[in-house]
Design goal:
By secondary structure, the protein is an alpha/beta fold. The protein has twelve helices and 14 strands. Bound molecules: serine (SER).
Length: 332
């Protein structure tokens, strides 16, 4: 299959935690006019809306998606729109609809419009209680116990199916919990690892919804953006896997995270009050073997827990002092 050049990119879910930062980085690299941000409901920040094209698109509505691709002569879709694990357990049908119907819409459009690429993230949620929990291999048991996980396993299979059946260039990577100081995550099980930093700065105390010993794979946003763009730009011919790359960066327990924050804020206290998300966290791996990503497209993370915590606290402290700790959509 001849690899087509990617010039104009559409990012769905561009107002979300990862989509918002990914869109801004892609605009730097590909030119602001060449990266179309799509949101469904949440207002974009001024920066996102004013730095390049913005469209309201629901990924489950294929006609609007098609019209938007045609209008902007799109040749790659990065499908970041998703319902995450905790929200997905409250509304499993919605999670299936957005995560699976949304993805198949983008893959069908890639086939129909002969797009150069579709990239859709997967997640550590594809694993389940019967998967080996430590250094989880690339090829292993995929029997998730959340609808989010079920939809992401389906998404990986759909990507691989469109590669082999239709010659579509579809790619994906299994994000661990993603931590950043910019846009807050929403509806995920790993959200505690972001909230804890905000509360440490704001109140000096945090009530954590998983136990102190809960250990999960995590990644700092600059590494997440790098992983996504590195995979997107990798030579298709060098990929043996397509929709399901394990990517790792760091792994820590909630207690270790609190201890790291305490190095800078010694009076910081955490109470542990697990809720329904504990069972979800317990079904996921502790750490990830990402040797396939390292071998096939050169994956290499930069941030560990210490470096991430220094950067997070510095950024949030500056915003807190300026009275803008919590950012939200601010444009009309
Ligand atoms: N961060 C996601 C969640 O917690 C996992 O991919 O749902």
């Amino acid at each position: 299959m001849a690899k087509k050049a990617i010039k104009k990119i559409l990012v769905t879910g561009a107002v979300g935690q990862i989509g918002s930062e990914l869109t801004l980085e892609l605009r730097q690299r590909y030119g602001a006019e060449n990266v179309v941000a799509c949101g469904r409901k949440t207002k974009p920040t001024k920066e996102l809306k004013e730095s390049g094209p913005f469209e309201w698109v629901d990924v489950t509505e294929v006609e609007k998606l098609r019209d938007t691709c045609r209008k902007h002569s799109i040749d790659a879709i990065i499908n970041m729109a998703a319902i995450l694990s905790a929200t997905g357990e409250k509304n499993p049908q919605l999670a299936w609809h957005v995560n699976v119907t949304g993805l198949i819409n983008t893959l069908e459009l890639a086939r129909e419009l002969e797009l150069a690429q579709v990239l859709c993230p997967s997640s550590i949620a594809v694993f389940g209680p019967s998967t080996p929990r430590k250094n989880t291999p690339q090829e292993t048991i995929l029997k998730p116990t959340t609808m989010y996980g079920v939809s992401k396993v389906t998404g990986e299979l759909l990507c691989d199916y469109y590669v082999q059946r239709h010659g579509v260039d579809a790619r994906g990577l299994r994000y661990p919990g993603i931590i950043s100081a910019e846009t807050l995550p929403g509806g995920g099980t790993t959200d505690y690892a972001v909230e804890i930093y905000y509360k440490a700065i704001e109140e000096g105390r945090y009530t954590c919804f998983v136990e102190e010993g809960t250990r999960l794979p995590m990644m700092y946003m600059p590494d997440c953006i790098k992983a996504t763009i590195d995979l997107m730009e990798a030579d298709f011919a060098s990929l043996e896997h397509h929709g399901d790359f394990n990517v790792g960066a760091m792994s820590f327990s909630a207690g270790e995270l609190a201890a790291e924050i305490r190095k800078q804020i010694p009076e910081f206290t955490v109470a542990y009050e697990p809720d329904f998300r504990q069972a979800i966290a317990d079904s996921w791996p502790e750490s990830i073997d990402d040797s396939a990503a390292r071998k096939e497209w050169g994956w290499q993370p930069s941030y560990d827990l210490g470096a991430m915590t220094k950067d997070m606290l510095a950024k949030l402290r500056t915003r807190h002092e300026a009275g803008t700790l919590y950012r939200s959509g601010e444009s009309d």
